[in-house]
From TrEMBL, chain A:
Name used for this protein in its record: histidine kinase
Transmembrane segments: 9-31, 139-157
Reactions catalysed, as given in the entry: ATP + protein L-histidine = ADP + protein N-phospho-L-histidine
UniProt keyword Zinc-finger, yes or no: no
EC number(s) stated in the UniProt entry for this protein: 2.7.13.3
First-tier enzyme category under EC: transferase
Pfam families reported in the protein's UniProt record: HATPase_c, HisKA
TrEMBL record, chain B:
Residues with 4-aspartylphosphate modification: D51
Response regulatory domain segment(s): 2-116
Domain OmpR/PhoB-type: 124-224
Pfam families tied to this protein: Response_reg, Trans_reg_C
Gene Ontology molecular function, alphabetical: phosphorelay response regulator activity; transcription cis-regulatory region binding
Descriptive protein name: DNA-binding response OmpR family regulator
Keywords assigned: DNA-binding, Phosphoprotein, Transcription, Transcription regulation, Two-component regulatory system
């Protein structure tokens, strides 16, 4: 992709060259005509001069003498069965001096010298057309060169002055991040279109921020408002369980209701978390040892893994430090653990490696690759029957994004790999 | 034991009240800050359960007043708000514990027990249940005066079970209690079974009676 100015410059150059080159034949033709007209005029003038000043005094005996000293004005005998009279013709004559053919403009006129008929021939040498073409060509090259230089300077000038505010705007939009909701302030421009662009962008951005903000608030409020009814629900189930005559069947129903409430609760908490990740609540960052953070919940997750006969293998560099929000990083690691356990198979394995700039979780699971496009979107579940709520990976992604870390997924040798590069 | 419950959601306060009643805990309920302040000024409570969002004000006002009155009642905040800031502010203002809604009533009961024990530390810090004795602060367990080697988690589980004496405990309540901070993450109850099995085995080997009853294989109950 080429830049705007580069393209303009290219177009201008091509256009200029084409116009200049296509004008070349016309200019040549015009120059040629003008030149010939001028020469013809000179010939007629010489004729008039000859008739006015030379002819009256010329005698027949002088003719030979005249012809000896005049190369371009000659008096020929009447016998010359010439082509046309009183009409200038063009003819190539052989020039013995330079041994080449030279173009001439020639006029034949009938005159009378002492009542004897004769023919007057006036000829003028023309510049050779090749010479004219070459000269004109050099001239054209000069013009082209100057024009291109001017265009280049013009382009530099426009980019520096005219397009300045445009590039400024472009750079600011590029850096704009909706989640950080810091609306950019654009440079004032005295060009109508750019000012219009800036205004429209400003409006678009502020609407976007507003919509984004209200959507976030909505999620937060909705999740929050749900907590209380959930608490009521939970309390009622706990109370019901205490009744003395609960049958096995009823207990089963209550148990599954219990699980559903905790699932709802988890989902709610995750939604709340997602809506809060970019808020000042999690702004504070500290330097900490990532290896320790990974090992901390290991007991708990090992216990979970044992229930599924999953083996966890660690390959951790104990010295790795990161600078991030501690609470969020804990959540990120827990989610990676949980993901690797939840989507694993019985007697599977989990391999965790931590090196200087990457944390990699590799685990066994379903024998096919997951859909990379949808993987990190909310509520996209690869396995509909799984216990997950489809928010775990979105949370991982959101936390990674916040720290400008990259999350990637790959599937190789029947192993699912999630890596975080920081 | 007498506690004060400041909670505006009637359904929640009813559930809490009825759950605690069978464990000999008298629960006084109010849903207004003003009324709560009057009660606190006039009566002594072992523990106060405090919701933060109340119709006539913020629960933090109650905390502030308590602090200014130099009262050292144990306070557990029960709130739907779950931000770190709210938690920290609560603790700064003198709250002893923070329980986010929704929670299991069994969890609340254990927290109340634990808080009351911490508050009366000069008094009774030994929990006795027939032949079992638990030293709350030393974190030791003995059966028939013989010390048994219990992990912290096992003691915690034992306290939870004994604290909810005669209550039916669902596996999910136990799982959430055992997983603590990781409560969000749980999706299998097998590890609850493993923990209970371990606990039963240790108690059994020490010559303790089997008090842990399974309820239809879906829950547990501590009963003599």
């Amino acid at each position: 992709m080429k830049g705007l100015l580069h393209k303009t410059l290219l177009f201008y150059s091509i256009f200029t060259t084409i116009v200049l080159l296509s004008s070349y034949p016309f200019v040549y033709w015009a120059m040629d005509n003008l030149y010939k007209e001028d020469v013809d005029e000179a010939i007629f003038q010489r004729k008039d001069e000859f008739i006015a000043y030379n002819l009256p005094n010329l005698k027949i005996e002088d003719i030979q003498q005249w012809n000896r000293f005049n190369r371009d004005i000659k008096i020929l005998p009447d016998t010359v069965a010439s082509k046309e009279f009183n009409h200038i013709i063009e003819q190539n004559n052989y020039d013995t001096l330079v041994s080449e053919w030279e173009p001439y403009r020639i006029l034949y006129t009938k005159i009378k010298i002492q009542h004897q008929k004769a023919v007057l021939m006036i000829q003028l040498n023309l510049v050779e057309s090749e010479d004219l073409i070459a000269t004109l060509g050099r001239f054209y090259l000069g013009i082209l060169f100057v024009l291109l230089a001017v265009i280049l300077m013009f382009a530099k000038f426009t980019s520096k002055y005219l397009w300045k505010s445009f590039y400024d705007t472009l750079q600011k939009i590029e850096q704009f991040n909706l989640e950080k909701h810091d609306a950019p302030t654009f440079q004032q421009s005295n060009i109508k279109e750019f000012e219009q662009l800036n205004k429209s962008l400003k409006k678009l951005i502020s609407t976007n921020i507003q919509v984004y903000q209200s959507q976030k608030e909505f999620i937060e409020n909705a999740a929050h408002e749900l907590q209380t009814p959930l608490a009521v629900f939970q309390g009622k189930i706990d109370t019901l369980l205490q009744l003395s005559d609960v049958t096995h069947e009823q207990f089963e129903i209550l148990s599954s209701m219990n699980d559903t409430v905790s699932k709802l609760n988890r989902m709610n908490k995750n939604l709340l978390l997602l809506s809060k990740i970019n808020t000042p609540q999690y702004n504070e960052t500290i330097h900490f040892n990532l290896a320790e953070l990974i090992k901390k919940p290991l007991d708990f997750f090992s216990e979970q893994a044992i229930a599924k006969n999953i083996k966890i293998k660690l390959e951790i560099d104990d010295t790795v430090m990161v600078k991030a929000n501690f609470v969020l990083t804990e959540i990120l690691v827990s989610n990676l653990f949980l993901n690797a356990i939840r989507h694993n198979v019985n007697k599977g394995s989990i391999h965790i490696s931590l090196s200087n700039h990457t944390l990699v979780f590799t685990n066994t699971g379903i024998p096919e690759a997951l859909n990379n496009d949808k993987l990190f979107t909310r509520f996209s579940k690869s396995n509909p029957s799984s216990q997950g709520n489809g928010l775990g990976l979105s949370i991982i992604k959101a936390i990674a994004d916040l720290n400008q870390w990259t999350v990637s997924y790959s599937f190789q040798n029947k192993l699912h790999t999630f890596s975080i590069a920081f | 034991m007498k506690i004060l419950l400041i909670e505006d959601e009637k359904e929640i306060s009813n559930s809490i009240k009825s759950y605690l009643k069978t464990n000999d805990i008298i629960c006084e309920v109010t849903h207004k800050v003003q009324e709560a302040l009057e009660k606190i000024a006039n009566y002594e409570y072992d523990c106060i359960l405090l919701d933060l969002m109340l119709p006539d004000g913020n629960g933090f006002e109650v905390l502030k007043t308590l602090k200014s009155l130099n009262k050292s009642d144990g306070i557990i905040i029960i709130s739907a708000i779950e931000s770190l800031d709210t938690r920290l502010e609560g603790f700064n203002l003198g709250a002893d514990d923070f329980l986010t809604k929704p929670f299991h009533l069994s969890e609340l009961l254990v927290r109340i027990h634990s808080l009351v024990r911490r508050k009366n530390f000069n008094g009774n810090n030994i929990i006795k249940f027939n032949e079992i004795q638990i030293d709350f602060f030393a974190k030791t367990v003995s059966v028939n005066d013989v010390k048994i080697d219990f992990t912290k988690k096992e003691i915690d589980l034992l306290l939870y079970l004994i604290g909810n004496h005669k209550k039916v405990l669902s596996k999910s309540a136990l799982a959430e209690h055992l997983s603590g901070d990781m409560a969000d993450m749980l999706d299998n109850h097998n590890f609850v079974y493993a923990h209970i099995k371990n606990l039963k085995k240790k108690l059994n080997e020490a010559g303790c009676q089997d008090y842990v009853k399974s309820v239809y294989g879906l829950g547990y109950k501590w009963e003599a």
